[in-house]
Amino acid sequence: MVFNSAFFFVSLAVIYGVYLLLQSSWRVTKVVLIAYNFFFYGIWSVKFLIIMVLTASVDYLAALAMQRYPQFKRVLLTLSIISGIGLLAYFKYLNFAIESANTVAGLFGATLDWPTRNIILPIGISFYTFHSLSYTIDVYRGKLKPITDYSDYLLFVSFFPCLVAGPIIRATDFLRQIDTPRRPNGDDFLVGLSAVALGLFLKSVIADNIGPYVNSLFDHYQTNGIFENWLAATLFGTQIFADFAGYSGMAIGLARMFGFWIPRNFAAPYAAVGFSDFWRTWHISLSSWFRDYFYIPIGGNRVSALRQGFNLILTMFLCGLWHGATILFVIWGLLHGMLLAIEHGVRNAFVSLFPRAQPLGAAVAETSAFVTSMLLAQIGTYACVSAAWIAFRAKSLDQLIAMMKGLLSGPIKTGTVPSWLVLIAVGTIACHMLQRRFDLTGRIERSRTLCGLTIAACFYLVVAIGAKGQDFIYFQF
Fold it and tell me: Are residues 303 and 358 in the same domain?
């Protein structure tokens, strides 16, 4: 079931009405919500549902065993990680590993010719695996006590707004909300519905309408000029932001309607000043997961500059691989890893050369020279991030190489695409800059009038000009 379908909204209305009617018994309400979570996910495949429940069950039992047998905590955590990552690796990376082994063998003159398997990737497995692993890791670290109620844990792992494509929810954030009955009020409903409406607008009106043009620009990469290659990169950046931020916004809004709080997953990333800033504001739940559960444990910033650069590249390599089992996603991750490593290296060198340098004061920050330099830094960051999106979107290495070269050389043709697409590409970074300065989303949430206007305007535009029936991009991850 998908958020942008009529069937989903009909089923949502039914479960929401039942949810509100059962507020007198929180335990019964939770069971009903779990049943809807299973219905929401199981409608794709009962087999997928069994795999999700299996993942949750293993981690639930592992955490309980950590409390009862603390001397075996490390072993139990290892079993939890092997179980979760093992299932993920089988479904998502086995064929990639087989194909890679065949290719590497061929480079050395050997012939393996191992056959690939007919494997269907369970929807959302990358997300709910990370949901569940956050629980066992935090129990192991002593940040969280294991819960005894199995149904509460199932509710956490299977929570339908975040089950298929995130945001990745942490056990420490979500489980404490289950302890007390969720009693959504009028503001929860209004703010949540406005987030759902805005998310649906981003998906159906923005992402899905520019999608065919993005496909065309990438399909004709062999004849593209410089302008068309840059437009392809920036438009895909707009498409994937509108698509994924739209889904995340809908998930957060749906959770709010049911009385749950989910952290923001995007914070105007295309207005970032530098690549660290970009990853603090893009897919926040994933970047912070890798930071807390991988980057910091392997040393983070507490090591030499060379080792820090290696840690960043390794982390982003895994982040790229998390997105998909192809060499192109690996390249995309490595590109961001190298950009982050270079940025941190330059920053560390500056601190070493100017150890007494102080943060700029408010007076300096308002000068025209500083504002101009910040603007140039934002545009430069946006350009590099957009160029890297080509690796994410390309279908082959040949296409990636050709389009990357085409960003710097080739004919300049400006009359081959509609002008409104150029306005969207430019308007994307402009809107993000405005969001950074004025927090437009926060202003809408604080005003019932703005919430109502947002709901009416967004649903009207979705009905009037929204494209219909297209899957969310992150469903494939």
Answer: yes
